[in-house]
Specification:
Elements lengths: L1 H26 L6 H15 L5 H5 L4 H65 L21 H17 L5 E2 L5 E6 L12 E9 L5 E4 H4 L3 E4 L5 H9 L5 E6 L20 E9 L17
Antiparallel strand pairs: 1-2, 2-6, 3-4, 3-5, 3-7, 6-7
């Protein structure tokens, strides 16, 4: 059984290496360099130095010793093949890393542009007086009944966003995020990209079902401001410490088609109450945080 498994493993690596050669040569025909020669040298060394030759192994009388020698030689070839494969793939991995870094740069550029465009809207929302902190009042449309969850949530979400747009002091950003500044603090500080934030929050579905609440747990939550759903990331970049906002987040800025857990189905639009209590790395922003306050 060990011999069969080992042979299968070595064959799989050999096939992967052969497949990789064809694809790499087709995509990057300039990679035939000293790296390949080094990898081949590794393979030769493994065959001639790191393990007995196959002829010598087959001449061993003891079946137990012969088995151990075959496994040792198989391991040596397997390691050499893996080293060769990794060496040949390194140029592509380097390019992939560069692409990932460039994508991050472009995303940061887009975020900076979106921030600049949204800033005047947020300032207007901050100055707006009135509105319903518990709104919008909403009843899911009957047309969503008896539909699959994804389709039903899409209809409910569209109706909920329409209801939110009709509310006083609710503002829509270009991304589709809706927000209302329930408590403003223009003199507060905003988190910088990725900075840890301390928040109290409550998340509800359009029908009012609470799916997550730091208030219910009795303590605020702290997390990096850029490791959240897109709607939160955008909102937190504009929020100031000491402020409380209501967010209406479309599905594409939340969990999208995949949903999250048992409570947030696919294509769910979400409503959050968010209080930015402070920035833990800047203790002067924390003040006296009442962990049990439910707003």
């Amino acid at each position: 059984m060990t011999r069969i498994l080992l042979a299968a493993s070595v064959s799989a690596l050999a096939l992967a290496a052969c497949s990789e050669e064809v694809e790499t040569d087709a995509a990057v025909d300039t990679v035939e360099t000293a790296a390949t020669d080094t990898a081949m040298a590794d393979l030769t060394a493994a065959e001639t130095v790191d393990a007995q030759s196959l002829e010598d192994i087959l001449a061993i009388e003891s079946a137990t010793d012969r088995r151990e020698a075959l496994i040792e030689r198989g391991d040596a070839i397997q390691n050499a093949l893996r080293a060769r494969f990794e060496t040949r793939m390194q140029p592509l991995q380097t390019e992939l890393d560069e692409i990932v870094a460039l994508i991050e740069e472009v995303e940061n550029e887009l975020l900076a542009g979106a921030f600049t465009e949204a800033a005047p809207i947020v300032d207007e929302a901050r100055a707006c007086e009135g509105g319903n902190p518990d709104g919008p009042d909403f009843t899911p449309p009957a047309t969503a009944e008896d539909l699959p969850p994804s389709a039903a949530n899409e209809i409910i979400g569209a109706a909920f966003l329409t209801a939110a747009d009709a509310e006083a002091c609710v503002y829509r950003l270009d991304s589709g995020l809706r927000l209302r500044v329930d408590v403003a603090n223009p003199e507060g500080l905003s988190p910088e990209g990725g900075e840890t934030v301390l928040v109290h929050y409550e998340g509800t579905l359009p029908d009012g079902t609470v799916f997550d609440s730091s208030y219910a747990r009795g303590e605020p939550a702290a997390f990096p401001s850029d490791r959240l759903i897109r709607g939160w990331v955008e909102a937190l970049s504009h929020m100031k410490t000491g402020e409380s906002w209501t967010l209406i987040i479309p599905a594409d800025l939340a969990y999208g088609e995949r949903g999250a857990g048992a409570d947030i189905g696919p294509n769910s639009t979400l409503r959050f109450k968010v209080e930015l209590l402070g920035l833990p790395l800047r203790p002067q922003t924390l003040g006296e945080v009442d962990a049990g306050d439910d707003g």
